[in-house]
Each structure stands twice: as C-alpha cells, then as structure tokens.
Amino acid sequence: MQTEIYSNSRCIKIVLDGRLVAVNKQQIKTMNTLDGDKVQIDIGEGPLKQIYLRASEVTIPSTFASSAELLDTLVDFWVKGLDCCADTKAKMDRQITELVNINAVLLDIRAGLNPVSPPADIFAAPLQTDNEQPGIVYEGFAAQGTTLESAGWAIRQTVNQNNQTVQLWSNGTKSLDNIWIDRANISYLPLIVTV
Question: What is the phi/psi pair of residue 9, to 5°?
C-alpha cells in the first residue's frame, strides 16, 4: 500500500492507494506512535474514525525510517496550519478594528455635514414636567427611553414675569443636550432662532 501526505493551511490530505482523506487540522485531537511503524491520528469521533498510517508505506513528502519521524512531520504539518489560522484570525481582527475606526470617522464627518435636528414630534408633549416651585414650570423633551441622568433633554422653563407668561429654553436652544435632573442649575434664555 502506498501513502502520500500533503498539507495546506486548513487540512492534511492523505492519499491511501488513490483514495483521498482530508482531515481538518482543527479537528485533530491527538497524534501518537503505536507499536511498530504505525502512527495514529485521533480526530475525536470515536475509535472507528481514527486514522492509522504506516511509516514504511509513506512515499510523499518523503520516506520515513520510523513512526517517530513520520509523527514529527505530521505534527509539523499540523502546527503550521494552526499557526496560519491564528495569523489569519489576527489579521482579520486588525482589519475589523480598522473598519470600526473608519466607520467612527465617517459618522463624525456625516454628523458635521448634516447636523441632527430632533424630530418635531419630540416637542409635541413633554416627557417630564416639574411644577413644584411656585411660578416656575419645567418641561423636559427627549426621545423615548432617555434617562433622567443622561444628556439628551431640551428643557423649557415657563415663568410669570410682570403678569406675563414667558417661555425660556435651556441655553436658548431646543438642543437635546441637557440633563433633566440638572434643570434648576441651567441658564434659561428666550429661544434663539437661527436662519
């Protein structure tokens, strides 16, 4: 019986008298020598799925005087393939990191070109109202799910001045960049209209 053994990055190909057996390198559990000139390759699928090779029958990549020499060559094939997989994974990880960074830069550029305006329906009804201080009502507008502690609120303050109701906005804008729980410490100005 003539045996040929080839290796690529993913598998060890064994040709036994013209029959091809391809073994995925990640599937190999153990390899060891047995009595005489045999090498056993255990692929972890039970005793009937193990592969046995005789060193004296291997002609490619070379001839082997002992099972130990054949085992050394098989282990070398196996390890080189696993290193290749690790190198490929490391390269893919670096590329993914680069793509994430590129995406972040593109999002920043996009935000600069198209400033995000809050949807008009956010201002249809406040999510929060505080009228505990006499003569002052605070109304908070934000997207659903915005927490009270996060910067995502536009806050309107309604006050009575000289018998008139005046509406003021946090920092004079409807920008969703204020924190609701800090509403009493924010400067309120008439709405600044930009053209």
Answer: -65, -25
- How is residue 25 written in tokens? 């390198």
Give the alpha-carbon dihedral of 118, 122, 123, 128, to 10 degrees.
-120
Distance CA 175, CA 185 (A): 17
* Segment holding 4, helix H or strand E: strand 3-7
Residue 13's contacts (CB-CB under 8 Å, 6 or more residues apart) are 5, 6, 7, 20, 21, 22, 23
Q: Structure tokens of 74?
A: 């098989």
Q: What's the pTM value of the predicted model, to 2 decimals?
A: 0.41
Helix (H) or strand (E) holding 151: strand 151-161
d(CA 195, CA 185): 28
Report CA 161 to chain centroid distance, whole Å.
Answer: 54
Q: How far apart are CA 177 and CA 123, in angstroms?
A: 14
**Residue 23 backbone dihedrals phi, psi, to 5 degrees:** -115, 120
Per-residue pLDDT reduced to its tens digit, 162-182: 888 999 999 999 989 999 999
Angle among Cα 183, 186, 189 to the nearest 5 degrees reads 115
Contact 136, 153 (CB under 8 A): no
In angstroms, rounded to a whole number, what is the distance separating the alpha carbons of residues 16 and 3?
5
Would strands 164-170 and 151-161 be described as parallel, antiparallel, or unpaired? antiparallel
The tens digit of pLDDT for each residue in 106-143 reads 877 766 665 556 676 889 999 999 999 888 999 999 99
